[in-house]
Amino acid sequence: MTARILAIAGSDSGGGAGIQADIKTITALGGYAMTAVTAITVQNTLGVSAVHAVPPEIVAGQIRACIDDIGVDAIKIGMLGNEATINAVADALEGVRVPIVLDPVMIAKGGAALIEEEAVWAMMQRLLPMANVITPNVPELVALTETEVEDAADMLLAAQELLIAGPRAVLAKGGHLEGDQLTDWLVTRQGHLAFTDAKIDTRSSHGTGCTLSSALACGLGQGLLLPEAVKRARIYVRLALRSAPGLGQGHGPMGHGQVINDITAPAPVLNQITVPATDYGASLAFYRQLGLRLIVDSPDNGYARFEAGNGVTLSIHVGDGVAGGATVYLESLRLDAWVAELVAAELVVDQLPRDEDWLWREARLHDPAGNRICLYAAGEARRFPPWRV
Questions:
Q1: SS3 label, residue 249
Q2: Predicted model pTM
């Protein structure tokens, strides 16, 4: 059954953040998006110029209308704006027993305040105890804990302090900290886990927080464990950043709809095939002539990778197998667990999962006919390797 995800948030007229980002994200990740709009903002990539709050009773009515008829598997809460709306949302969700992801939206990317100061206390009292996970960035973490955060260690301590306020978990986002690396901390009562990647240098970062929280809610609604849901949500955000269309004069929107055929579902995804080649130059010219986009060109290794219009990739590799054969690639977020299940089922696996020099983690086996099968996890490295053309 398709996971039903309710996004409670404000509308972004520019389409990059808020409800618009939530709908795009949930849909891309295979969920069914429902909405309760809390505010209508006048904004674009340059900033927010006006906010019109939706009456609290209408916000609560939207929530009840969705849950009473369609049902819900997870909830994402974003911009709420004022104390009355916070109380209305808390009352409407009383007794609802599904994962709730709280994104404590306080300040827009352009600097505009998106919540009244007195409403922060209401959020702490009413919504934090309901949340399975809260996803503050550094400024929000500082505001909620009244502590200084200068580095990743400070962020971890502040997240641990916020955990005391009632949420079951805190995902503290480190994008505002200085440095080339970005670390997010997932903190629970059982311990903490760091997720670290290189920062992506782009101005098209509008809606990253909304996208991450709705992706996280979607994963939880689909039954992923919290660390798995965080991992997939972060990969989705990073791919959407890399796929941004470059629109607007300010903080542009991400490419939500371009993240296709990647890790969008817990189930295996068929998205890559490699075919043997004997003449590198001739094969390169042939596939380019067909209209595939060259994204890796490594003649010294006899290897090239192309991207199709739907995001699926195809590679040629001189000397890799017998001409006329092929290798089928299946990607899964659960690679190691998946292979362990296959081994337990007495399927012969030629190579257990291992990290390769090309930044993929791979396992290898053959089908009954002798065709080669590669089970793998690549994240960004399939379409966006460091050596991408």
A1: coil
A2: 0.84
What tokens were used for 236? 């989705």
CA separation for the pair 218, 256 (Å, rounded): 14
From the list 114, 34, 115, the residue with the least C-alpha distance to 68 is 34
User: Exposed (0-12), middle (13-18) or buried (19+): which is 124, by Cβ within 10 Å?
Assistant: middle
Helices of type H across the chain = 18-28, 56-69, 83-92, 119-122, 138-145, 152-163, 208-221, 226-242, 280-289, 335-344
User: What does the block give as tokens for 181?
Assistant: 């690396």
Domains present along the chain, CATH in parentheses:
4-258 (3.40.1190.20), 269-381 (3.10.180.10)
Please list, in sequence order, all residues whose beta carbon lies within 8 angstroms of the beta carbon of residue 232, skipping any fewer than 6 positions away. Answer: 29, 215, 219, 224, 263, 333
Neighbouring residues of 286: CB distance < 8 A, sequence distance ≥ 6? none
CB neighbourhood size of 38 (10 A): 28
For the chain, 389 residues long, give each residue's pLDDT as a single digit of tens: 899 999 999 999 999 999 999 999 999 999 999 999 999 999 999 999 999 999 999 999 999 999 999 999 999 999 998 999 999 999 999 999 999 999 998 876 655 667 887 888 899 999 999 999 999 999 999 989 999 999 989 999 999 999 999 999 999 999 889 899 999 999 999 999 999 999 999 999 999 999 999 999 999 999 999 999 999 999 999 999 999 999 999 999 999 988 876 666 667 888 899 988 889 999 899 899 878 899 999 999 999 999 988 788 989 999 877 666 678 888 888 899 999 999 998 989 999 999 999 999 999 988 877 778 899 999 899 989 999 99
Instruction: Retrieve residue 94's tokens.
Output: 């009383």
Say how far apart CA 88 and CA 1 lie, in whole Å: 30
**Terminal CA-CA length for the chain:** 40
Q: Are 32 and 83 in contact (CB under 8 A)?
A: no
Beta bridge partners of 228: none
CB proximity list for 372: less than 8 A, separation 6 or greater: 321, 325, 326, 327, 328, 364, 366
Beta-carbon-side half-sphere exposure of residue 217 (alpha carbons within 13 Å): 35
